[in-house]
Write a structure and sequence with these properties.
- With 193 residues, the chain is mostly helical.
- It has one domain.
- Helices cover 84% and strands 0% of the residues.
- It contains nine helices and no strands.
- Helix 1 packs across helix 2, helix 2 packs across helix 8 and helix 4 packs across helix 5.
- The protein is globular, with a radius of gyration of 18 Å.
Length: 193
């Protein structure tokens, strides 16, 4: 139990030391996470929830996530779309994937974006390279990212709270397993790897 209290104290002190700079840094990282997939979106959303509270942390994370995805979409739409689209279309698997993305229904696009374990950068890049209309992509982002940001904010803050009350960790584990199984089933249905 002393280890959990030490970790909780470390996180609290780190956030206090970084102050608003840590929050700004978290927002910048959220923007770039949509382009550079190795950055952990869940950590940055959690930091915003802890720093700004649930409501403001949610709004800031949601807006930054949507802006980052739009940036990624436009980079690939305007920068490399024509060259990559023709190259990918010649590959059977990639061509089928681009056709799937180009013809995906609005409801399915929202669902894919909303699932926490779907690689967002892949959806952004595929939407930018393929022929997905910006209005459709943007509206799907605005709707789908609501549940994704709320999910990671809840999971992240619950993990921090679990350092004080380990029972919360069991709940978080169950939620993660359920969401992962739903993500796995949906990725099989949509044939996403």
């Amino acid at each position: 139990m002393e280890i959990f209290e030490a970790i909780d104290s470390l996180i609290t002190n780190l956030l206090a030391m970084l102050g608003s700079f840590g929050a700004v840094l978290g927002c910048v990282f959220i923007l770039f996470e949509s382009i550079i997939p190795i950055l952990p979106l869940s950590v940055f959303i959690t930091l915003n929830f802890i720093t700004f509270g649930n409501f403001l942390g949610f709004i800031i994370s949601w807006v930054c996530t949507v802006i980052g995805c739009v940036m990624s979409y436009y980079i690939f739409r305007n920068g490399v779309s024509d060259r990559l689209y023709n190259r990918f279309k010649s590959n059977d698997k990639l061509g089928k994937f681009l056709d799937l993305v180009s013809n995906i229904s609005f409801a399915n696009l929202v669902t894919l974006i909303a699932i926490p374990f779907t690689p967002a950068f892949l959806i952004n890049i595929a939407s930018g390279i393929s022929r997905v209309d910006f209005k459709k992509f943007f509206l799907a982002l605005v709707i789908g990212k609501v549940s994704l940001v709320y999910f990671w904010g809840y999971i992240g803050t619950s993990l921090i709270d679990s350092l004080k009350n380990p029972i919360i960790l069991v709940r978080v584990g169950v939620i993660l397993v359920v969401v992962y199984l739903i993500s796995f089933m949906l990725s099989k249905k949509f044939k996403i790897r």
